Amino acid sequence: MTVIEARGLHKTFGATVAVDGVDLRVVEGRILGLIGPNGAGKTTALNAILGLTPYQGELKVLGRDPWTNREQLMRDVCFIADVAVLPRWIRVAQALDYVAGVHPRFDRAKAESFLAKTTIRHRNKVRELSKGMVAQLHLALVMAIDAKLLVLDEPTLGLDILYRKQFYDSLLNDYFDGSRTIVVTTHQVEEIQDVITDLMFINRGRIVLNCTMEEFESRYLELMVHPDQIAAARALKPIHERQVFGRSILLFDHVDRQQLTALGDVRTPSIADLFVAVLGNQAGQAQGAAQ
């Protein structure tokens, strides 16, 4: 089942092009990591998917137009952004009461079960909780809703490493069941490398990379080259090169691992390293075109 499908998705704010002709297809049971620098168009694209902003082009979410059918769509979609959206005056028990009253697919018992694993108490007010605890509360409320699509926009922003790990562990162990679909944007890309099934880079409103994690792991290799083999390694046309402690590290696309092993130490690159390489190449191409 196709959960999200966009063709020529376009959004402008005055003279600024935020999303520039994006084609996108996300199927059921996948976890998509949408990665991009600040101002790349990530949040605008998510807002279009959530029916929060009008757009040009074609967009269907769970078979519906999100702008004209948002009320019906929100029965099957949940969203987590910065946890500051929760009112600071509200008590945990009141938050549970509120969601139970407004969402027909909220399972209060499930939310209570999630919260029982934390130190959060029903009498606590949001303002009395740490940011990490607020994230736990927000996640418990959302995970207890029987939704088909979960959209996360920088969900762990500002949290320490312990709470970030707990967040993604809970997401995978307590929520994701292989039939739900998750879209997540984050700048902490190293933390989602083992979480996502699909990877997409967006820059200046355009998709510049789109692959599954299986393709990522088979397609890209990073080589810490032996100093006496640098010329041979460069002859294989790496897509990026950087220096670490005086050693050259080259990133390759579709080059045989055995061929590279003879030249140095080979490993799968991190998403962050590939991101820097792809966006660096794009910036270089744009500069060359301008000249």
Task: Explain what the structure shows.
By secondary structure, the chain is α/β, with parallel strands linked by helices. 33% of the residues lie in helices and 29% in strands. The chain contains ten helices and 13 strands. It has helices at residues 42-49, 70-73, 92-102, 108-115, 131-143, 161-175, 213-219, 230-234, 257-261, 271-290; strands spanning 2-13, 16-27, 31-35, 56-61, 77-80, 149-153, 181-185, 198-203, 206-212, 220-225, 240-244, 247-253, 264-267. The strands form three sheets. A six-stranded mixed β-sheet has the order 5-6-7-3-8-9, with helices on both faces. Strands 11-12-10-13 form a four-stranded antiparallel β-sheet. Strand 8 (198-203) and strand 9 (206-212) form a beta hairpin. Helix 4 runs antiparallel to helix 5 and helix 5 (131-143) packs parallel to helix 6. The longest helix has 20 residues, at 271-290. The radius of gyration is 22 Å and the shape is globular. The protein starts with a strand and ends with a helix.
